[in-house]
Amino acid sequence: MYTSEFEYHRAGSVQEALTLMAANPDAKLLAGGHSLVPAMKLRLASPGALIDVSRIEGLRGIRVERGTDGDEIVIGAMTTHRDVEFSDVLREHCPLLHEVAPLIGDPMVRNRGTVGGAVAHADPAADYPASMLALGASMTIVGASGERTVPAEAFFRGMFETAVGPGELLTAIHVPVRTAGEGQAYEKFAHPASRYAIAGVAAVVRLQDGVMASARVALTGAGAQATRLTRVEEALTGQSPTADVIASAVRGAVHPDDLLGDHFASAEYRAHLVEVQARKAVLRAARIAAG
Ligand SMILES: Cc1cc2nc3c(=O)[nH]c(=O)nc-3n(C[C@H](O)[C@H](O)[C@H](O)COP(=O)(O)OP(=O)(O)OC[C@H]3O[C@@H](n4cnc5c(N)ncnc54)[C@H](O)[C@@H]3O)c2cc1C
Predict the structure, then answer these.
(1) CA of 158 relative to ligand 1 center, distance in Å
(2) 35-40 contacts: CB < 8 A, separation 24 or more?
(3) For burial by CB atoms within 10 Å, which of 45, 146, 173, 197 has the most?
């Protein structure tokens, strides 16, 4: 199917994007186009205009910066999945994202799709949102009234719903640099055709004196939005990272009533998959943390 007619604008700067959004209230931002264009072709979205932000100078790249709570990695919103996959900075300082990127779609999707587009789109089956929650990431949003930074928990608000408001633009994602004694892992049960997550779990575990001093575990794919599995996190914290402890902590991690069910996988099957992926992710993160 073809898209409905639309105007095309290419923004050369963040300011220009904001001005174009103000002048075109029915416009949508275009990043890699790998979620938006299929939606337009299916007529699930019919914006009157597209504002292409993919070539804005300064919105692409990955760098380490000194933040208020220690070093952090700043990822420009227009950084592609491929840039993430091949980033030495992320390989060293945030192996979770480095692990997640090559699991997304196929090479064409990874060449065009962007981290910012994926995070702003908030597809319930997207991979990054669970990682952002497990890492304790935050997102910088720019609008006419200025700039604000929102923690991942407050950023993801529902299915395809985020804290980015009308006329606003996500410009960067901030991720803490991995600390000593920390292990990170992502396990997903992927849809065999699209590679989207049917159930994906990201885990960040910090070991101290042989016990899990902290554990952040987050889920994507199975429910309406990515969420932290706080009950699992509480059950893990302060415990030895043995296979039995981890298996017991993830048991009944989610209730089928809180999950999606469709022709790919029933809610009951997804609940089972969540347990399996959570066990695998936490165990592997703990083993990495142990060195
Ligand atoms: C065949 C296929 C397989 C895929 N498999 C996976 C997979 O396995 N895992 C996965 O996670 N994803 C998958 N995807 C989705 C892919 O990762 C997309 O690239 C991503 O979801 C959207 O990023 P984009 O840059 O293409 O954004 P676009 O499609 O350009 O935009 C998506 C939405 O976000 C908005 N937007 C974009 N940038 C911004 C911004 N800076 N600020 C505010 N709003 C913005 C747009 O207006 C639009 O509404 C797949 C896609 C395809 C086509």
Answers:
(1) 16
(2) 35/113, 35/117, 35/118, 35/121, 35/123, 36/117, 36/121, 37/3, 40/3, 40/4, 40/6
(3) 197
Q: Is residue 94 domain-resident?
A: yes
Assess if residue 195 is contained within a domain. Answer: yes
Residue 28 CA, closest ligand 1 atom number: 47
The rounded Å distance from CA 15 to ligand 1 centre is 22
- Of 158, 176, 194, the residue at which a domain comes to its end is 176
pTM of the full structure: 0.97
118 lines ligand 1 (CB under 6 A): yes
Count structural domains, the chain: 3
- Boundaries of domain holding 239: 182-290
What single letter denotes the amino acid at residue 242?
T
**For residue range 42-95, what is the model confidence (pLDDT) as tens digits?**
999 999 999 999 999 899 999 999 866 779 999 999 999 999 999 999 999 999
Ligand 1 pocket residue status of 104, Cβ below 6 Å: yes
